[in-house]
Structure formats: structure tokens, C-alpha cells
Amino acid sequence: MPNHLQDTTLLNNGVKMPWFGLGVFKVEEGQEVVASVKAAIRNGYRSIDTAAVYRNEDGVGQGIREALLETGLSREELFITTKVWNSDQGYESTLRAFEESLRKLQLEYIDLYLIHWPVKGKYKETWKALEMLYRGGKVKAIGVSNFHVHHLEDLLQDAEIVPAVNQVEYHPLLNQKELLVFSKSKGIQLEAWSPLAQGKILDNPVLQEIAAKHGKSVAQVVLRWDLQNGVVTIPKSINEKRIVENADVFGFELSDEDMASIDSLNRNERVGPDPDNFNF
């Protein structure tokens, strides 16, 4: 059970990944994302999650460089994730897209590279490219995002390397129990995007009651629930106070009863697209 912001989970290839990180989806390129990344690293975060389609890799890279100068940390102490977008999927195009992400981030390697969505007829070729990048040492770990169980089963039929991570929409309204069990059985680390359901759960009375009992915010309770379920979490914020508050989830523990109450909120309700019905 993670007890500190810099605690890590061991991925299936032996790489250490922080349990907690900063997501930058919809964070504006330029000063907004630079400030957000710097605030997170300054306040103890070591993991930053971006993607080609977020169009803010340049700013993330700048934020990282400035934060390293400011804090005296080394690049090796950070864990940086980015993702290949749907229109770049396929073998050669994925290799090109990766080089472009590396150039924008101005990094020598990426810690985790993900297939952003399971584009039908393309994700297996894309995975071969990721395996090649991994073997070449440019990526420390490779994984997928938004893959259902059936996508993973299909990928694993031909994959030489088992994905280290599957990053999916995950929150109390969509607790992905089947996917969580399957992922654990295959040694794939589940990671939550949109862990707060884009704010839709913050006024939930069950969560408010549990939060009041622990003297915590609803957001902190939900992020703690992620961690206690063994799920890596990457809440997004551009507000330094909120970035700090989000990470203050290591000094308390939810009881089995709390966990069950939160589990019972599941409605299989998404705030983002369903990977099976996504307009690729």
C-alpha cells in the first residue's frame, strides 16, 4: 500500500512507476502547462502524463527542464508518459510519431509509451513498433490505453511483450471490476484517467459522508480508493493549491466498509468515449 507521494509500483518488467502523478489532458500549451508541471514537481510529484494529441508536449518538456533546474533533481528521478495518437498508428508511422514526441519533449528517452486507443486493424502493428522501441532502449516500459478485456486478449495472442500498463477511464461510477481482475491476472498495471469523473462525483452524498468522516475532501477519498484498489492515478489540475491537495492522500486509510460503499456507486457510466464505439 503506497504511503508516500513518491512510492512506486513495480511494473511487470521491473521498472518502478509512481502510484501518483499529474495528468495534463486539456491543459493549454504554453505557460499554463509549464506552470502546472513545475508546480507538481516542486511539490513532490515525480510522474507526468501527456500525449501527442494533447498538443502540449513542448510545454511539458519545458516544464520538466525548468523544474529540474529549480529543484536539482535528475531526469532519472522523473517518470514521463506519452502516447501515440490514432492517426499515427501502424508500424512505421508509430516510430515516426515517437521520434516527434521525443523531439517536442526534448528528452532522450520516455519512461512509458502507450497506444492511446485500440484502433481496429492497426493496434497490433502499432504494438510491434512499441516492442521495437522498447528493445532499442528508447522507452523504459510500453503499454496501452482504453483497452477492454477483449482488446487485451486479442493483443496478447501475438504480442511478444505483455503491456506493462493499461490506462483507462476509472472512477466510482465506472469501477471496471472485470478489467481490474483481468489486468492483475496478466501482470498489467491498471491506471486511472479522469479519476474524478471530470468533477461529476464531487457532490455525491455517499462520498461526501465518507470524506467528512475522514476530514478529507471527496477528491482525496476517491484518489485514495484508487490506490487501495491497486490502481495508479493521475488527477489533472492547473491550480498549485489543488495539485498539493490532490496528493495529500497518504495519511489516512479507507476501511473495508468505505471501500465497499464506494464500489456500490458503480453505474458503468462513462464521461469519455467507449473504446468499442469511438469514432476513430
Give a quick rundown of the structure:
Belongs to the aldo/keto reductase family. The chain is α/β, with parallel strands linked by helices and about 280 residues long. It has helices at about 30-40, 55-70, 90-105, 125-135, 150-160, 175-185, 205-215, 220-230, 240-245, 255-265, and strands spanning about 10, 15-20, 20-25, 45-50, 80-85, 110-115, 140-145, 165-170, 190-195, 230-235.
Which homologous superfamily in CATH is the superfamily? NADP-dependent oxidoreductase domain
Strands, total number: 10
**CATH architecture title:** Alpha-Beta Barrel
Q: Low-confidence spans: pLDDT under 50, at least 5 residues?
A: none
With strands numbered from the N-terminus, the spatial order across the biggest sheet is 3-4-5-6-7-8-9-10
Strand content: 15-25%
Number of helices: 10
**Overall pLDDT confidence:** 97
CATH topology: TIM Barrel
Question: What is the rounded distance between the termini?
Answer: 37 Å
Give the tally of structural domains: 1
Q: Tell me the overall shape.
A: globular
Q: Care to describe what's here?
A:
The chain has a single domain (8-265), classed as TIM Barrel, CATH 3.20.20. It is 40% helix and 15% strand. The chain has ten helices and ten strands. An eight-stranded parallel β-sheet has the order 3-4-5-6-7-8-9-10. A two-stranded antiparallel sheet has the order 1-2. The mean pLDDT is 97.
For the structure shown, list the relevant keywords.
two-stranded antiparallel sheet; single chain; 280 residues; alpha/beta; 15% strand; eight-stranded parallel beta sheet; 10 helices; 40% helix; TIM Barrel
